[in-house]
Amino acid sequence: MDTVRFRLQIFLVLLLVLMLTGSVGFMKTEGLSLTDAIYFSVVTVTTVGYGDITPKTEAGKFLAMVLIITGVGTFLGVVANSTEMLLNRREKALRKEKLNMVIGVFFSEVGTDLLRFFFSCDTRTEALRKDLVITNEWSDREFTSKGEGLSRYDYAIDSSLADLYELRALLQEKRELVLRIFENPYLLEHESFTELLRAVLHLKEELLHRKELTGLPAEDYKHLSGDIRRAYILLVHEWLDYMKYLKKNYPYLFSLAIRTNPFDRNASVVAK
Fold it and tell me: Which of 13, 50, 132, 246 sits CB 3.0–4.6 Å from 254 for a disulfide?
């Protein structure tokens, strides 16, 4: 995309130089007014050639030939690169839409449940709860502000507070789904979500390699707390971005999402 934009900028500069050169040249050689000179340069470069203005002098004819030879290619370069950039933007938008569909499946099947598990072993929940009770009145600016605030939140995880057996069962049950999502080529354009899936898979492996998940040494609970914290931080940020996307594009999905908000103790799926 950057390459196409760079090429377009070069062609636009060349086209501008040619148009200025042609306009000034026709004013000098053909005695045209500024408006007529610009008009003649445009119809020459675009090969429209209405025939209402034609060069009369030798110098004017030579300038017209130079403009045709150099200007046509430059003009076509502008058109071609502009078209490519527009198509690339459309393709990028389609890829982003498909990626958001994948993220939606993740939260529907496992992401929201993981948030509830992780939140249950967060010992400092009130600040986070207060900031993430989302309503229909939230604007894009508020989503952005809350996202910036998350980077300053102290995620204090104590894995001994969570039902690690239930968490392991959930991750094992959804293992194939997470792996399938991980294989999606659109993830290459969303590094943070890829890191989230990697963190979730790592947490699953940590839990599966332990036969017993109760009565663990304090140091091991601390280690698991670190693994949960890593996935938790990534998951909260991703969830907030996804909620913003739903509010903007799919109000009916957003409605259900805020009625099942894992951070809202008053949330109820029953519409009131």
Answer: 246
**Domain coordinates of the chain in residue numbers?**
2-89, 95-259
Residue 267 is given by DSSP the state -
Phi, psi of 72 (to 5 degrees): -60, -45
CATH of 2-89, one of 1.10.287.70, 1.20.120.1770, 3.30.450.40, 1.10.240.10: 1.10.287.70
> Token digits for 186?
């659109």
Q: Which two tokens stand for residue 117?
A: 């598990």
Compute the Cα dihedral for 258, 114, 239, 103 and give only its sign.
negative
Residues 2, 59: Cα–Cα separation, whole Å: 40
Distance CA 188, CA 173 (A): 25
**Side chain identity, residue 117:** F
The CA dihedral of 10, 188, 244, 93, to the nearest 10 degrees, is 50
pLDDT digits (tens, 9 = 90+) for 16-61: 998 999 999 989 999 989 999 999 888 888 878 777 788 889 898 8
Which alpha helices (H) appear in 174-217, and where do they start and end?
Answer: 175-182, 191-208
